[in-house]
Specification:
alpha/beta, nine-stranded mixed sheet, 16 helices, six-stranded mixed sheet, Flavocytochrome C3, Chain A, domain 1, FAD/NAD(P)-binding domain
Length: 495
């Protein structure tokens, strides 16, 4: 149906005149009063990693799935990631002789986020993580292997799994190839959902109003709806409200992260959680705007400020490190690493982009590096020597760093970096079935959520609770759960 001035039924007029809070929800007493343009068992809003995994999981159950993507291509923040997913107890870990468990993974997450996420939900997701990785490999034909090049800060085991290229765009392409094999998955691009349609009696979600390019406004009906949109990193108004310290920061995430899924859920009475939490990164090259992998630190590198001094234990985590970098003069630092680290990460797609854009410079001596970046040469050289002594075990590091890898050796590499906002971590509260819930714990009927729309596992506030790669943990594991649960419930209604 198009809203182009044509005649409307009385039911459609009632629908159009009964808008919910902040215009986010259309309430309709009787769905039969509406002329629905599309009907599906499961409607997935958002075609990022969470949405595509949701669609695949639901389709595998036999549900008819309709996916709406407001952009011209799929991917969202997942396409900008390094396709890294933490999972505990996978067969890939066992093959590498690595002992791990969901309980240990949960301990690591809760330790990092200061016990700011629901412990039962956190454990549930950790237990489901190995199933996700093996399901992607075995059922979807998407190869994810164990990353053993380095141990990311906060993880007590090698449990990060990724594709060969460490590129989210390639991972998204693989998800799309898998989706193309299912006749019961349809994806509409340039098709933003404008608002949800709900029953005013109990808030049950009936579908969504969709604006499809070249067609106009349509009504999509579904037995179950999954909100798989992203966070609100590109919504400056929401940032000012919930994360004021980052409202003017450089934003490195997807521009489609405007938070409408969270606003829709809030309008339906959903509980919000962890809205002040976010993922940041302290190694975005400046002014190039490319991501310098934090492996340059994890494997033994360090950062200098413009005074030629280190300013923090760089190993504490790349998310909270963003604020450390932004607090320095001009909001920048210089990343220092050596040829061993360079050769290890040189095939990473993001690192290749840094090389192509000229963000990384090579030097025979640390003094030459300092001069090139206009740092005080003597101060930088003294800082470097002190760092290397600590790395060799010849004294304690002044900032308490204990993880150094091998001591750095020439030639050296440098790159100017800054801190940036990557992804917000707060959102709608969900239960173990990925159902959106109210403050009293009651589920909003027929509504599920994952990805950036749902609250993540980074604690209540700030960047410090983000454990490396937990963004895709929340997106993909909760996406799979949402797809399976929504499909099962929808198909039971058919039966």
């Amino acid at each position: 149906m198009r809203y182009d001035g044509a005649a409307f039924t009385e039911g459609e007029k009632l629908f159009m005149n009964s808008r919910g809070p902040e215009d986010a929800i259309f309430y309709v007493n009787d769905p039969a009063d509406l002329s629905w343009d599309v009907e599906a068992d499961v409607l997935v809003i958002g075609a990022g990693g969470c949405g595509l995994v949701s669609a695949l999981a639901a389709a595998q159950k036999g549900a008819q799935v309709f996916v709406l993507e407001k952009e011209k291509t799929a991917g969202g923040n997942t396409s900008l990631s390094q396709a890294m997913v933490p999972a505990a107890g996978t067969r890939f870990q066992k093959q590498a002789g690595m002992e791990d468990s969901a309980e240990l993974m949960t301990q690591d997450i809760l330790h990092k986020n200061s016990h700011g996420s629901d412990p039962d939900l956190t454990l549930h997701v950790a237990r489901e993580s190995s199933k996700l990785v093996e399901w992607l490999n075995d059922s979807m034909g998407i190869s994810l292997g164990l990353v053993t090049d380095f141990l990311y800060p906060g993880h007590s085991r090698y449990r990060i799994h990724s594709n060969r290229t460490r590129k989210g765009e390639h991972f998204v392409n693989d998800l799309l190839k898998a989706a193309a094999r299912y006749e019961n998955i349809d994806i509409a691009y340039n098709a933003p959902a404008r608002r949800l349609i709900a029953d005013p009696k109990d808030g049950a979600v009936l579908g969504a109003e969709v604006e499809i390019e070249g067609v106009g406004k349509n009504l999509a009906k579904a037995k179950k709806v999954i909100l798989a949109l992203n966070g609100f990193g590109a919504n400056r108004e929401m940032l000012a409200r919930y994360i004021p310290e980052m409202k003017d920061a450089y934003y490195f995430g997807h521009e489609g992260n405007t938070g409408e899924g969270i606003l829709w859920g809030e309008a339906l009475g959903a509980a919000l959680d962890c809205m002040a939490a976010y993922q940041a990164h302290g190694s975005v090259t400046h002014p190039h705007g490319t991501l310098l992998t934090y492996a340059t630190v994890s494997m033994g590198g360090y950062h200098l400020n413009l005074e030629g001094k280190r300013f923090v234990n760089e190993y504490h985590g790349y998310s909270e490190h963003a604020l450390d970098v932004l607090a320095q003069k001009e909001g920048v630092a210089v990343a220092v690493f050596d040829d061993r680290i360079y050769r290890t990460v040189q095939d990473y797609e993001d690192f290749q982009q840094c090389i192509r854009m000229g963000a990384i410079r090579k030097f025979d001596a640390i003094q030459d590096l300092a001069a090139s970046f206009r740092l005080p040469v003597e101060e930088a050289a003294a800082t470097h020597e002190a760092f290397c002594r600590s790395a060799r075990g010849e004294g304690k590091d002044r900032f308490g760093r204990t993880d150094f890898g091998k001591p750095l050796a020439p030639p050296f590499y440098g790159a100017k970096v800054t801190g940036a906002l990557f992804h917000t971590q707060g959102g709608l509260r969900v239960n173990k079935r990925a159902q959106v819930i109210r403050e009293d714990g009651a589920a909003i009927p027929d509504l599920f959520a994952g990805g950036g729309t749902a609250a993540g596992f980074s604690g209540k506030a700030g960047p410090g609770g983000y454990l490396s790669a937990n963004g895709l943990l929340a997106a993909l594991v909760m996406g799979k759960i949402a797809g399976e649960e929504a499909a099962s419930a929808a198909l039971e209604e058919v039966g």
